[in-house]
Design brief:
Elements: H1 2-6, H2 12-35, H3 44-69, H4 73-94, H5 101-126, H6 139-148, H7 158-176, H8 188-207, H9 211-232, H10 245-265, H11 267-273, H12 276-285, H13 293-318, H14 327-335, H15 362-375, H16 391-411, H17 415-436, H18 446-466, H19 471-491, H20 499-523, E1 549-552, H21 556-567, E2 572-574, E3 581-585, H22 589-599, E4 608-610, H23 626-635, E5 640-645, E6 667-671, H24 676-685, E7 688-692, H25 704-711, E8 717-720, E9 731-734, E10 744-747, H26 753-765
Parallel strand pairs: 1-8, 2-8, 4-6, 5-9
Antiparallel strand pairs: 2-3, 3-7, 4-7, 5-6, 9-10
Helix pairs in contact: 2-3, 2-7, 2-8, 3-4, 3-7, 3-13, 4-5, 7-8, 7-9, 7-13, 8-9, 9-10, 9-16, 10-11, 10-12, 10-15, 10-20, 12-13, 15-16, 15-20, 16-17, 17-18, 18-19, 19-20, 21-24, 23-26
Subcellular location: Cytoplasm
Family: Belongs to the SUA5 family.
EC number: 2.7.7.87
């Protein structure tokens, strides 16, 4: 419910749904563990439940306060009652003299509030708005939300992510403060629930076009999975696991760099993220890791800071008068600098190909490469491989989060990068689990070597393709080949001493440079850290290098901009009711000629005419026979192109000398498309000249990405509508002899012959 709601507007319901979902997930798993006898001790269930319940008591109280302050009384009441029930349950676990009645009353209150709202909505719908209980009429509320929009660039998912940081920190705070007696298996559900939800919030933050906060939540989710692993390990081994010091030092550096860039976007968030720098350093300095008092002390500070920053985010999402976060001061400061200028505006998250709903995830993906590579520098004990915490860093950072980054890159049209990220993530997951969980043991197998060789063949293809991308990507993929070689040598017992550490360090340093370059390019205008140009250039390779304008077809403003481009003599690729086409305005003869040149149009496949209504041909109606006019009227709008005799009516369209490029000397193909976007565009521009959006002789283009790949440097803009509704072109009907009662078919497309003949028969009867 929170995700579905968030796609429409920014509401406190997003934070409430996601927070409650995380609460019930962790709470339910702990109850299952207790019911299965996994928590046998007399105080184990209490120690497991109290940290999470205490956190959600405070988190929901914050939601309730903001709800009442920002005019969301029902949501505030639900949050307050669940918070009260959680508080009573904490008290019940701490004192046996209290009964469960207060907890039950709190949950009963939630039922009553929900029932009241449901009753109000039912009455509103049954009476068609005549009866509405107070607080249940959403008409005014929706109008306010639409007028307010999504509160500018505010990320509505930041608050739930910060509340989840409170949850993980409270597990360690309660141990330090003596609220719980020990850290054990019962706390793992809270930590892993928080980590899992934060990965989800990381994805949603990319949907909200907030790259830096998405990266921050990806980082903190890694810490949560690692903490859960450390608490889980003592269940099968008596000792506590050790943490690799180099990895945590590198992690603190990544946190510091990200906090620096985040402070330029939002100083409060940047200062908050700095709390994780001493946290990583404290973990690195403590042999006992998460079990030591130093990291637990920093966790107390993170808990308090998370609560304060979450309150600011919750309030700023809904309130008209915002709590200042210092964003304006940073902008004013950078405005005085001629060297650094923040990247802003509609092109901030422009995808490589077409229109994407996600921001770029390369910053997180490169950072995960750094983390996974430095985690491999921890050799560990071959007899007890799990005693050194490597698996969470390699599998979660190098595997899961890199897989997420590859998926986002694919959604943004970065086919090569996404292929590499997904391939590397699979390798990190497989090798991390087999090598560092003891699955392969001390024995090595020829089969493992064959698998690694297969992977290296795939990676060699990526290395070759990266020659055409840029220099940084070539070194990134090439240095990962060194890591793969170390895996291979290890599998066949031929690994030289120190080679694996050297290879991973080189790959980690290259990844760190790419991380910095991606951060800088997403934050500042102009390339601060160069990625280098393609090392090899071939004719026809990289046709989309000169990026033309790309606009989402779902926006009316986009159609208006395309119309302006066409009126000014440009050519554009647009979606239709069949496949994508290349168009030019008939009123601009120079554009018609340009479209003909860009396609290298063959003589046997001439360009056609499209109109949005027969009214556009009304001045020349007397030049058409009545049967032909009535047939056009009955057949359109549809994917049926009619080839009609060429005549003086063509001169009414204003093409002048460029009319020779349209049709043949004897006939012209014309139709009205059955596509609202296309007809609206023709309404704005007038009749247009159309040809398929692909070089002559190639297959039709069925996605805007294909238009970029084939004609990206030859058109002025592409209207991006995603996949074509149909992969079959229009039916082309020969109407040059229609007055004698005969029609022919040049091409039978999506509309069958029988349907066209049926339309003609009906017109003839009329």
């Amino acid at each position: 419910a929170g995700i579905r709601r968030s796609l429409r507007n920014a509401s406190l319901l997003v934070a409430l749904c996601l927070t409650l979902s995380a609460l019930w997930s962790g709470y339910g798993v702990i109850l299952i563990l207790a019911g299965q006898g996994v928590l046998p001790g007399p105080g184990d269930a209490r120690d497991a439940l109290v940290p999470g319940l205490a956190t959600f008591t405070l988190a929901l109280l914050l939601l309730a306060v903001v709800g009442f302050l920002c005019g969301e009384p029902l949501l505030g009441l639900v949050a307050a009652t669940v918070s009260l029930a959680s508080a009573h349950e904490v008290a019940l676990h701490c004192s046996s003299s209290l009964g469960p009645s207060a907890v039950a009353c709190g949950h009963l209150s939630v039922c009553l509030v929900g029932g009241y709202f449901a009753l109000g909505r039912i009455l509103y719908l049954l009476t068609k708005g005549n009866v509405a209980l107070p607080g249940t009429d959403l008409t005014e509320k929706k109008a306010q939300e639409q007028s307010r929009g999504s509160a500018g660039s505010t990320n509505p998912f930041a608050a739930p992510g910060l509340l989840l940081n409170m949850l993980s920190a409270s597990v360690f705070c309660c141990r330090l403060l003596g609220v719980t007696h020990r850290l054990f298996l019962g706390h793992v559900p809270w930590l892993w629930a928080a980590g899992t939800y934060q990965i989800g919030i990381c994805v949603l933050s990319y949907r909200a076009m907030d790259v830096l906060m998405a990266t921050a939540f990806g980082f903190t989710s890694i810490l949560k999975f690692a903490g859960g692993y450390c608490l889980l390990y003592p269940t099968w081994q008596p000792e506590e696991p050790s943490l690799p010091t180099p990895f945590l030092v590198v992690f603190s550096i990544l946190f510091a760099v990200l906090a620096l860039f985040l402070s330029l976007q939002n100083p409060v968030d940047g200062l908050y993220l700095l709390f994780f720098v001493p946290y990583c350093i404290a973990l690195a300095c403590s042999p006992r890791g998460f079990f030591a008092g130093g990291p637990q002390g920093v966790a107390v500070a993170i808990f308090v800071a998370s609560a304060l920053v979450a309150l600011i985010h919750l309030y700023n999402v809904r309130a008209k008068a915002k709590i200042p976060t210092g964003k304006g001061a940073v902008k004013a400061l950078l405005a005085c600098s001629s060297l650094l200028k923040l990247r802003e505006g509609p092109d901030l998250h422009a995808p490589y190909l077409g229109y994407s709903k996600y921001a770029d995830a390369e910053v997180l993906t490169y950072a995960c490469s750094v983390l996974a590579s430095f985690a491999l520098t921890a050799t560990g004990d071959p007899q007890a491989p799990l005693a050194t915490v490597v698996i969470p860093w390699v599998v979660v950072a190098g595997g899961i989060l890199k897989l997420l980054g590859g998926s986002v890159a694919f959604a943004r049209g970065k086919t090569l990068e996404s292929s590499a990220f997904i391939l590397y993530s699979v390798m990190w997951i497989i090798w991390g689990l087999t090598r560092y969980s003891g699955l392969c043991g001390t024995a090595r197998s020829f089969h493992a070597a064959v698998g690694i060789i297969s992977f290296m063949l795939f990676n060699s293809f990526i290395v070759f393709c990266s020659l055409f991308l840029n220099m940084a990507w070539f070194f990134y993929s090439l240095t990962f080949m060194l890591v793969a070689v170390s895996f291979l040598l290890d599998a066949i017992h031929a690994l030289p001493t120190g080679y694996d550490i050297a290879a991973t360090l080189i790959f980690g340093l290259v990844s760190f440079y790419c991380f910095l370059a991606a951060l800088a390019s997403s934050t500042f205008e102009g390339c601060c850290l160069p990625m280098g140009g393609p090392m090899v250039r071939l004719s026809g390779v990289g046709a989309g290098t000169t990026k033309c304008l790309h606009l989402p077809a779902r926006k009316a403003s986009s159609v208006k901009r395309i119309a302006d481009i066409l009126r000014n003599g440009g050519t554009c690729g647009i979606p239709t009711d069949t496949v994508y086409v290349l168009v030019a305005a008939c009123s601009r003869p120079d554009a018609v000629e340009k479209a003909h040149r860009s396609k290298r149009q063959a003589q046997d496949r001439p360009m056609s005419l499209w109109i949005s209504s027969l009214k556009q041909l009304e001045p020349a109606k007397h030049l058409f026979t009545p049967l032909l006019w009535d047939f056009m009227e009955a057949a359109w709008p549809s994917p049926i192109s009619l080839v009609i005799p060429r005549g003086e009516w063509v001169d009414f369209l204003g093409m002048k000398d460029s009319a020779k490029y349209v049709g043949t000397p004897q006939s012209v193909a014309i139709r009205i498309p059955d596509c609202s976007v296309t007809t609206h565009l023709i309404d704005l521009v007038g009749p247009i000249v159309v040809t398929s959006a692909n070089p002559t002789g190639e297959a039709d283009t069925t996605h805007h990405n294909q238009v970029y790949a084939k004609l990206g440097d030859k058109v002025d803009a592409v209207l991006c509508g995603g996949p074509s509704p149909e992969n079959i072109a229009s039916t082309v009907v020969d109407c040059t002899k229609i007055d004698s009662g005969n029609i022919g078919f040049f091409r039978v497309g999506i509309i069958p012959k029988s349907q066209v003949l049926q339309i003609l028969e009906q017109v003839q009867k009329k």
